[in-house]
């Protein structure tokens, strides 16, 4: 088999479809990243603050927030997507399409990154909050000027790991018409017995993950001032 001729065939015949699929995956992952940062960071911080011995110890709040994260993260993703279909349909009027398919992924993204955020904050030196308190810092000031500043390198590193998970999860969303490279690889590669096409698409996913991981690690190291 001539690999060069196979690549020419694949990109000549499916180049446009591959580009569209990459765009769909990019959309799902980008939305998941934004949702994880906007909602996952505050949720993880809330779990950290309201835990036993935390700055805002509140058992009921901690239980509800922690239960959400635990349940969503432990749910098999494919079953979670199916479980969310009625809610997705209620919000978007349909459960099919890239935009609608991203809805359940957003819930998972929040849960994943909230747990990461909590773990990063728990790993910070205990003296950090004591130092903030000695300076008369309020809880919001402690969070934004001390905890999140000291934890920014770890938070970026965690977001990198979470993003790689989002890429993996996005490949499942073809079951609800989400599209993306995973769905493309299955429909045009596996189901049509064009295994070379499937391997090429898998290679593209791997390359994207390597680039994301390298970029995330560089940013994380740049932010680490220790």
TrEMBL record:
It is found in: Cell membrane. It is a multi-pass membrane protein. GO terms for cellular component: plasma membrane. CDD domains: TM_PBP2. GO terms for biological process: D-methionine transmembrane transport. The chain crosses the membrane at residues 27-49, 61-85, 91-114, 155-176, 196-216. InterPro entries: AA_ABC_Transporter_Permease, MetI-like, MetI-like_sf. Belongs to the binding-protein-dependent transport system permease family. This is ABC transporter permease. It comes from Leucobacter ruminantium. The lineage of its organism: Bacteria, Bacillati, Actinomycetota, Actinomycetes, Micrococcales.
């Amino acid at each position: 088999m001539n690999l060069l001729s196979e690549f020419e065939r694949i990109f000549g015949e499916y180049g446009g479809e591959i580009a569209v699929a990459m765009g769909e995956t990019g959309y799902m992952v980008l939305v998941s990243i934004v949702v994880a940062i906007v909602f996952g960071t505050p949720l993880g911080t809330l779990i950290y603050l309201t835990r036993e011995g935390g700055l805002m110890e509140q058992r009921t709040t901690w239980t509800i927030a922690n239960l959400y994260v635990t349940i969503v993260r432990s749910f098999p993703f494919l079953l979670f997507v199916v479980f969310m279909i009625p809610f997705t349909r209620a919000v978007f009027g349909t459960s099919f399409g890239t935009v609608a398919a991203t809805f359940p992924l957003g819930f998972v993204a929040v849960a994943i990154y909230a747990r990461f955020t909590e773990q990063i904050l728990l790993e910070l030196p205990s003296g950090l909050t004591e130092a903030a308190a000695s300076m008369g810092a309020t809880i919001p000031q402690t969070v934004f000027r001390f905890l999140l500043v000291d934890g920014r390198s770890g938070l970026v590193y965690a977001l990198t790991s979470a993003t790689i998970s989002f890429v993996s999860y996005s490949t499942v969303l073809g079951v609800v018409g989400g599209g993306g490279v995973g769905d493309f690889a299955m429909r045009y590669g596996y189901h049509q017995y064009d295994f070379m096409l499937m391997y090429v698409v898998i290679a593209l996913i791997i390359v994207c993950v390597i680039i994301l991981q390298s970029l995330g690690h560089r940013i994380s190291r740049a932010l680490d001032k220790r």
